[in-house]
Amino acid sequence: MTRELFIKILWRSLAAFFVLLGLIGIALPVMPTVPFLIAALWAASKGWPRLESWLINHPKYGPDIQVWREYRVIKRRSKVYALIMMACGYIVLWLFIPQVASWLKVTVGLILLTVGSWLASRPESPPKTKTDSP
């Protein structure tokens, strides 16, 4: 197997993994969809142009992905939904899954806090240009 083929398979596998997580997010309310599709877009852009095009042109998720790609913007509704679902998932972890070690729960909490802080700090709308003003 050539190095180029190996790298292409690696990027495609990563993209497929993120799409799978996004599909799981459609079914499970505690797991967001769009962030995983954005990650899939990133991986697909490295070695799967057809999947990249499909994600960008998807009727439901494509507009959010396009805005992210162009402006690094996440809509407020999407941010709030993702943050609420992350918090709910963490509460479920603490209350309903007692067999998980406390150190792991704390680690998950720190990761969620870091990701949630980053997510909350993203802009909610594209920057205004001089042509946008009345």
TrEMBL record:
Membrane topology: Multi-pass membrane protein
UniProt KW Transmembrane keyword: yes
Transmembrane segments: 15-44, 80-97
Keywords: Cell inner membrane, Cell membrane, Membrane, Transmembrane, Transmembrane helix
Database matches in Pfam families: DUF454
Cellular location(s): Cell inner membrane
Organism, as annotated: Idiomarina piscisalsi
Gene Ontology CC: plasma membrane
Main location: membrane
Source organism, top-level taxon: Bacteria
Protein name: Inner membrane protein
PANTHER family: INNER MEMBRANE PROTEIN YBAN
